[in-house]
Design goal:
Keywords: DNA-binding, Transcription, Transcription regulation, Two-component regulatory system. The chain is built from ten helices and five strands. The chain is mainly alpha-helical and 245 residues long.
Length: 245
Amino acid sequence: MTDGHITFKIPGEKLRAIVAALALSPNRPVSRNDLIDELWGEELPRNAENSLQGHVARLRRVIESRTGHDGLRELIRTSGFGYALALPESDVDASLFESLVREATALGRSDPDRSVRLLTEALALWRGPALLDAGQGLISRMAYTRLTEIRLTAYEHLFDAELARGLHREIITELQQLHAQYPLRERFCEQLITALYRSGRQAEALDAYHRTRQRLSHHLGLEPGEALRARFQGILRQEPVPAGR
């Protein structure tokens, strides 16, 4: 957790789970029932609401002791039916990440330079898997899935913008790494074989396509989608790849 230039780790999984649940909806209350479910699921303590209040009180003390500012205890505010994190969305990495990706996506292909800057800034906010130490509650699990998908989509938009700028050689290594990590994600394969083909590496591009086709067939019982097949056929015919594709 950060405040200005103060950075500190929240001790204890339960306290981190509370911070994560509140940070995913900054300035919007999260109900006590939802927080109780997030912390304990079906294994409820004898008096779950009192236990939750005790954890929130401890969290406030941690914030005060780690920052040295009594007023920062009010970052965790009590609402009529729950608690809220009193921070603007721009101060929460997850919210800022989504905002930057939305802004870049809205540009489409109209301004690839600005799109690259926004997406690079957004992806730089990631320091590892989303919500790594926030427990396994429903709020965190759903947010993990959503944020991970947005991150992968952001990479896809970033590579589109880089291809539009003619930087196909520069992105090959990163594309290869992501394609190896997500071998069934067809868009990464399409972008990779495009970058390889534009770089004069047609044999490698065809090999990457065939490996992806085999994986899709083996794991999902599917053939590549229309966009990936069309790119493959274009490479076979040695067609020029339009800018931004």
